[in-house]
Specification:
Length: 329
């Protein structure tokens, strides 16, 4: 069994000490003990119910991923660890979207451990890797009796709180990826990911996490989360046509009650809003406001900031916006 190496310093957050996000009572959920992916006997701790899960490198004080599932947590995590068993083949991006990123970090850390243990690759080194197991990852789960929208709202809240406490996101959430690897496609597309060649540019999804928004104000207010939202106007083609170009965040609110109904992000706000006029909004008269962040913003940074808004809304209202996850089962 390889030792547990120090993570790549350029990509791993500094350990903040006793992290609340690792406790068995984090945010009042009933978390299981931490279970290594290669520990079959201990897997009875993983509940056979829908809920939330978190993954970290063994013994480290930061998270790689926070997720939710409507199937059995035991089944979900069992399938995920099976997807990660082969150290020579990056998993597909479906059905476990987090698998390729987890695999990339695991393989890189294993390689770093091997190099540290046997720098000259002498014959005395054990080089049998065909049956390698992800010994450096472990998981913890919390059952959650909620609808799909309820679970996704809780997932967003956990990610929001993690970002508020740590100043960045888990390494494998929001489409983030290892900078020296390319992601596998879905199975149908059959484009297997792997390590980039020397000389190839870093994967932009490996660029840094954007700092969290400041948790201030009330949802829908002009200064909510430290941003400068445009004045809310009716969601009409005429008003959409006046929208400034660029990437950013937007909120849809009820014109009467001012309640935030949906939080969105796009690399082209003006292009995204027309599609919202074609959706069914349950009789609500909609208005919108937005914040342009720049002409070009990395996709994972946009998703991080949108999640900050959803998480703060959840913190203040104990639920996600009414239409945020309307299609969730």
């Amino acid at each position: 069994m390889p030792p547990d190496p120090e993570p790549i310093l350029s990509q791993a957050p500094e350990n903040p000490g006793d992290s609340e996000c690792l406790s068995e009572v984090w945010l009042d959920l009933d978390w299981s003990p931490w279970v290594p992916f290669n520990a079959p006997r201990e897997y009875f701790y993983i509940q056979k119910a829908p809920g939330i899960y978190r993954i970290r490198p063994v013994g480290k004080d930061f998270l790689l991923y926070i997720g939710e599932t409507g199937q059995s947590l035991h089944k979900k995590l069992s399938e995920l660890r099976q997807a990660l068993r082969r150290g020579d083949l990056m998993p597909w991006s479906d059905p476990h979207k987090e698998a390729p990123c987890l695999w990339a970090y695991w393989v890189e850390w294993i390689a770093a451990a091997d190099k540290e243990t046997c720098p000259d690759r002498s014959p005395d080194c054990d080089d049998e890797t065909d049956e390698a197991e992800p010994v450096m990852l472990e998981c913890s789960t919390a059952p959650l009796d909620a609808s799909g929208a309820g679970r996704r709202g809780m997932e967003a809240f956990l990610l929001y709180r993690y970002r508020q406490d740590h100043g960045e996101s888990p390494l494998c959430n929001f489409g983030r990826f290892h900078p020296r690897y390319r992601r596998s496609s879905n199975k149908n597309e059959k484009l297997r990911g792997g390590k980039l060649e020397d000389g190839q540019k870093d994967n932009p999804a490996g660029f840094p996490s954007i700092p969290p928004l400041e948790a201030t104000g009330k949802p829908g207010y002009p200064d909510w989360m430290g941003l400068e939202w445009t004045p809310a106007v009716p969601l009409t083609d005429e008003n959409i046509g006046k929208t400034e170009p660029g990437a950013g965040l937007y909120i849809l609110t009820d014109a009467g009650t001012q309640e935030v109904l949906f939080i969105g992000q796009s690399d082209d706000i003006a292009g995204a809003l027309p599609g919202q006029t074609k959706k069914e909004w349950g009789g609500h008269m909609l208005q919108f406001s937005y914040q342009i962040l720049g002409q070009k913003v990395l996709p994972h940074n946009l998703q991080e900031l949108a999640n900050d808004l959803i998480g703060n809304f959840y913190e203040q209202n104990k639920k996600a916006p009414e239409f945020q996850y309307r299609k969730s089962p």
